[in-house]
């Protein structure tokens, strides 16, 4: 009889983290800092100040506000907003310990998430359901878990996994932010309880009354990256919109650069992009971020798809351009999804999207993203420079804690 899936996963998580993975983690740390910088003045930012006196905990409400958080395509989830607050939540931990914790948190969250199917994604918010596993593994790493402790804690975290998509049917609720906060706190607590002696069900995934039985119809296998780590497969998001809108934005950007983005505009893409983002008449900033029609209008108007391009004045200004956009499914593009997020705009088809591993962005682009979002969040340029230095070059964990405290007040 084979070991439970969590016991198998733990052997991967418990490996030493190498220098290259720590470097990769620093890029994701910078990306997360940019996201919280840009969200400081949001409604979620105001709420975060009331829920906690600790910067890392306030940051749980900020990392996914702008829809610019990192994403793993096949697991269909966003690790950064969950993993980084957890990795920052033990003041005594060194920066290397935090980077290692992040790598292990990404591994658990993505590996398990990739085993869940389309039925799960249709109803459940994977960043929430899988976030508990990621936070649990990250905090377990911080406090020095042995393999059996990881397995017990992950089992307990999974026993309360959840987070429904229904909030998509309401305007501008903060449920997605609550999901992140809940995942961080609950996953962290699951690890802490095991540290003090609790045990947990190691077959919580595949067991007869486990998560696969409750949340999927056709569960798959846990993901792995061979001798590497799954953090290397995570995509960055260059534009301030739902990831499902990014392929269309990317194609439209290429057409615009060639002088060929001419109305009317036809978008052909995969089914989930339509399910989440076929929204011809957005009325709020959040709806605009989930609108293929608005995304194309933004690019056609010569804009850069930054946060201001999805705000109320942009929504009003781009109504005529949105009216010239039609969106439809292309079955061949759907068949390649989620391994490839693709779209065709006015005949130009892109299989992979800027920011994906096949079309990566690097330090230069992420530094530019930091500066852009810091400006949007009302921070001086010096703060963006400081964040870049702390995330990419320094080892001063205490200074990083201070920065997060100050940004989230």
Task: Give a summary of the structure in a few sentences.
Helix content is 53%, strand content 4%.
Describe what this molecule looks like in 3D.
There is one protein chain. With 409 residues, the chain is mainly alpha-helical. It folds into 2 domains: 5-233, 2-methylcitrate dehydratase PrpD (Orthogonal Bundle), CATH 1.10.4100; 243-350, 60s Ribosomal Protein L30, Chain: A. 53% of the residues lie in helices and 4% in strands. It contains 22 helices and 4 strands. It has helices at residues 5-13, 19-38, 43-51, 55-58, 80-87, 95-113, 118-123, 126-129, 131-142, 147-158, 175-195, 211-215, 246-257, 271-277, 285-289, 292-300, 312-317, 319-322, 331-336, 363-376, 381-392, 397-407, and strands spanning 265-269, 325-329, 343-345, 348-350. The protein has a 4-stranded mixed sheet. The chain is globular and about 65 Å long. The N and C termini lie far apart (52 Å). The model has no long low-confidence stretch (mean pLDDT 97).
